[in-house]
Amino acid sequence: MRKLIISLAVIFTLLLSICLTGCNTNIFDPSGNNPGLFNHPLVTKISYFMDNTFDISAGDYYKFEFSISSDMLNTRVGGSFYASGGSGNDIRMLILDSTDYVNWANGHFVTPCYDSGKLTTHSFMLNLTAGTYYLVLDNTFSFISSKQVKIDAGMEWQEYE
């Protein structure tokens, strides 16, 4: 027990001396003069993950899974769609996190990250944090008509170079 206390005291003293001599800069300095990782500039990146036309049967939906990693900062997902077919020429677009997607696909009520409602054409843009998401083109409300949907979507984020 005595050896453990002495060892802990030595380790504590070493860590304290290192911090007092080597940690004299504030890594949260708002001037941008931060050491280490924070010294690298943020760069903006763009990825287009959809530029397709889909045929979605009556009572069915199409899903596309995408992920945002923790090193992707200030992430925005956006795009536009155009639907044709049926009497309303409409589709519903949802963006759901992975938990809400499972619940939604099983018929349960969810609060989506994004819900366009039933529309013919629409542009969207939203901020999302790290996680796995599903972009859903929902035609489950239509019992008779299939829909053709043209969609362009992608994301923009920043990361340290």
Task: Write a structural description.
With about 160 residues, the chain is an alpha+beta fold. Helices cover about 20% and strands about 50% of the residues. The strands form 2 sheets. Strands 1-8-3-6 form a 4-stranded antiparallel β-sheet, with no helix packed on it. A 4-stranded antiparallel β-sheet has the order 2-7-4-5. The longest helix has 21 residues.
Topology:
Layout: H1 2-22, E1 42-56, E2 61-68, E3 73-84, E4 91-97, H2 98-105, E5 114-119, E6 121-127, E7 131-138, E8 147-160
Antiparallel strand pairs: 1-8, 2-7, 3-6, 3-8, 4-5, 4-7
Concise structural overview:
It contains two helices and eight strands. It is of the alpha+beta class. It is globular and about 75 Å long.
Oligomer: single chain
Summarize the main sheet.
Answer: 4 strands, antiparallel
The residue fraction in helices comes out at: 10-25%
Radius of gyration of CA atoms, rounded to a whole number? 25 Å
List the secondary-structure elements in sequence, H or E: HEEEEHEEEE
Which structural class best describes the helix and strand composition? alpha+beta
Strand % is: over 45%
The number of distinct helices, counting runs of at least 4 residues, comes to: 2
Query: What strand order characterises the main sheet?
Result: 1-8-3-6
Q: Average pLDDT, to the nearest integer?
A: 86
Number of DSSP strand runs: 8
Shape: globular
